[in-house]
């Protein structure tokens, strides 16, 4: 039971990290200090996606699931949990690169908006 809860906690942490990496730039408007957490998270997430690396949280979750007596899964967190929900079957390298580039572009736009807003309002 404890290993399953630990695996589920890693799953939730992983999902929250992904959401923060993708959308965390928006939080800078309200809490500027989050910039120092978001930038490394963004860089790490982009590097994982652009280089096709496996995030270390994925093998940790799989190992915890094995310890809980579950079968675990093969592949990445995104392929196992998110692709069935939001992407068509068969994540290709091209799609993976596009996702990484999209995360970077989205955040560049958010940071550009924040910088421009700060210059015009002086805050």
Give me some keywords for this one.
DUF2784; mainly alpha; transmembrane helix; membrane; DUF2784 domain-containing protein; elongated; 123 residues
Overview of the structural elements:
The chain contains five helices and no strands. With 123 residues, the chain is mainly α. The chain has one domain (2-121). Helix 1 (2-23) crosses helix 2, helix 1 runs antiparallel to helix 3 and helix 2 (35-51) packs antiparallel against helix 5 (93-121). It is elongated and about 55 Å long. The model has no long low-confidence stretch (mean pLDDT 84).
DSSP strand count? 0
- Structure class: mainly alpha
State the order of secondary-structure elements, H for helix, E for strand.
HHHHH
Q: How many domains, in number, for the residues?
A: 1
* Main sheet makeup: none
Distance between the termini: 50 Å
**What would the principal axes of the Cα set say about the shape?**
elongated
Contiguous low-pLDDT stretches (5 residues minimum) are none
| Share in β-strands | under 5%
Q: In which range does the helix fraction lie?
A: over 70%
Mean pLDDT: 84
Rg over CA atoms, rounded to whole Å, is: 17 Å
What is the helix tally? Answer: 5
Keywords: Membrane, Transmembrane, Transmembrane helix
Transmembrane segments: 6-26, 33-54, 94-114
Protein name: DUF2784 domain-containing protein
